[in-house]
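Comment thread on ticket #2218

A.B. wrote:
> Attaching the input chain for the structure job we discussed in standup.
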Amino acid sequence: MTAPGRIVVLNGPPRAGKSSIVAALQARGPWINLGVDVYNRAMPAALMPGVGLRPGGERPDLEPWLPRLYGALYESLAAHSRQGLDVVADLGHHDFYSQPLHLLPDCARRLAGLPALLVGVTAPIETILERRRANARGGFYTVDDTIVQRWQEAVHEPGIYDLTVDTAAMTPEQCAEAIVPIFADPPEPSAFSRLAASEA
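C.D. wrote:
> Ran it. Output below, let me know if you need it in another format.
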């Protein structure tokens, strides 16, 4: 029987450095990336921004799709793991929609029994703003301090993690080096187990 592959979910606001950690993990081995950017590239325009909806209830018309989209994404993470494949997903979980959707506990239940870590990816808001402004000069982003602040406040609720990394203090390689060894001695209960047991 094939041993299940490892699952890492990186949770943090845009420009926190999640994609760089994904690249650092992939440099260490065959980690498959199923994060928000990868998932949304397959999304039809009618459902965009897909699982990347910003906090604040920006698109209530798309919110009914989110339980199914997140459910399908997490089922895919679980399916890869059951095939013995290591998989990483960089996401921005929050529950600040027009009404609470309680997505994270449902997602956590879909990973039951699998080796899965939830990693909080943080950086000071000044660092986030600096990175966004650097990208804005390339024409990819506009910088809205209110939205950046909203992400900072929303994405780390409830803040239950197996590990938290600060990308202003650590390189992507150092973050990857901190994540991988946890699988050898995982916390009990894990962050996902605690979230799955919550009432939400």
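A.B. wrote:
> Thanks. Noting for the ticket: Residues 66-82 form the longest helix (17 residues).
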